[in-house]
Amino acid sequence: MLFDKEIVSSVSRRKWQQSQESKTLKDGRLELKFTVNGADGIKNWLYRWIPHVEVISPDWLRETVRDELKNSLSRYV
């Protein structure tokens, strides 16, 4: 996951998961990696950071988040 530099201090304030690895990129964004058992637990956590987070992998999670956001957005169009 990539987090915008505007919220890096909030996200990096604590360790969210035991396998967590983090890296601050040159542009100020934060790359966060960890292993989870499934989408249900991580999606709720991810959605709290919208619009400042991008799922970069795994592809199935990126697609799930994209599809759910598209469906939600269609209610406002």
Q: Can you characterise this structure?
A:
The chain is of the alpha+beta class. The chain has helices spanning 8-11, 39-47, 59-74, and strands spanning 2-3, 21-24, 30-33, 53-54. The protein has one domain (2-74). The protein is built from 3 helices and 4 strands. Strands 2-3-1-4 form a 4-stranded antiparallel β-sheet, with no helix packed on it. The model has no long low-confidence stretch (mean pLDDT 92).
Task: Give the radius of gyration.
Answer: 13 Å
Output mean pLDDT: 92
* Unreliable stretches covering 5 or more consecutive residues: none
Our measurement of the CA-to-CA distance between the termini, rounded to an integer number of angstroms, reads 27 Å
Q: Could you outline the blueprint of secondary structure elements for this entry?
A:
Blueprint: E1 2-3, H1 8-11, E2 21-24, E3 30-33, H2 39-47, E4 53-54, H3 59-74
Antiparallel strand pairs: 1-3, 1-4, 2-3
